[in-house]
Amino acid sequence: MKLRSDINITRTAPDVIEVTERGGCYLLFGALLLHLGVFLLYSTLHHLPNTGDLFCTVLLVFSVLFLLAGISTIFGRQWVTLDLTRYVVVTQWGLVHPIVRKSRSLQDFEAVTLSATRENHVYYYQVALSRKNSICNLTFVSLTDYGHAYEKAAQIASFLSFPLIDSTTDHRLDTRPEDVAHPMQARQRVWAEERTPAIARTGMKSGVLMTAEGMRICIPKPTMNQKSCIGMLSALPLVMLVIAIDAVAAIQVPSVATAALTVTPVLILIGIPLAVFGISRRKARLSRTIVTASANGIRIEEQYRQQTRTQTFVNRDDIVDLDCGSGSSIIYSAGVKLKTRHGIVIFGAGLSDAEVEYLAGLVKKALGNANTEIDGIHQEKSMLPK
């Protein structure tokens, strides 16, 4: 598991910026190693005078290693200097001051990349410089927040006049250098040329309605979700416990426990899944997601029993991209993925791929012009909250 870190971008000259990695939680880890090294060294020199030479030597070696690791973790830094006057990137490593220095030409790089990896159920967004014809990139930092990572990547790409390649979801997003500061304007030019995918009315689970506020989409919750499956799996230990108790009872009183040994596990195996399914289905019928898209932005409301529990509004200028896919991404399940400067918001998970693409097309059109009439819009007023 990686510890959280961050970078600080400082402009030291009109054509020079310095990217410094800040320790974050690494400082706490380094302080722990340093404390352990000091403790071992003190114990070796003062409290173990009668111990064998070999044992003292081993403790001394470990104490020195812990001390070096703690000092390097606390005071160790990486400096990356981007110099447009000489058109070079200089990477330096050291403690308080740089010790090792490596210089490369910026002509060896072609873009700033933003990618995502998953480790221990945590998503990391890596900001890096992509090399030409090489898989060895220069990584600046790995962050757990998409919005923060995109901000840093856009800042570096704008300074270098490099394109920004975002591959955090199913479809890669290439942003030209002149569009990095305002990605929504570039996306609108692309969306204006796209046609809204067609879908059969009988195949839609969600309802769409044009209102004065904009396009309103009502998305029902899926009947079975991850929590429901976990609830069913959690019943397996209970079934095994009941079988074990009945088996012990059958040995003591065979005539009475034989029926219980046969009937009780069957009732549990059938009753618990049916109960979980019934509760999930009832909760899904009373829950829905309301998405209102207009030229001002997108408002997402989570409702239960026609009462809004959570509400999120994303301004139009804060939107980076709108992506959808079949769930083949290593990170996100199927649904509409709204990538913003504050993070990634997903709605429509559990719908079919065709419906997800259709809803994404409607939202794209609504963001372009709230007054535009969309052909073939599907209205199902029974799905909309009263």
Question: What count of structural domains?
Answer: 2
User: Which ranges are low-confidence, i.e. pLDDT below 50, for 5 or more consecutive residues?
Assistant: 327-332, 378-386
How would you characterize the largest beta sheet? Answer: 5 strands, antiparallel
Shape: flat
Number of strands: 18
The helical percent reads: 25-40%
Q: What is the string of helix and strand elements? A: EEHHEEEEEEHEEHEEHHHEEEEEEH
Kindly, what is the distance between the CA atoms of the first and last residues, rounded to a whole number of angstroms?
A: 47 Å
Across the major sheet, the strand order is 1-2-3-4-5
Counting helices, strands and paired strands, the structural category is alpha+beta
Radius of gyration: 29 Å
Write down the overall mean pLDDT. 75
How many helices?
8
User: What share of residues are in beta strands?
Assistant: 25-35%
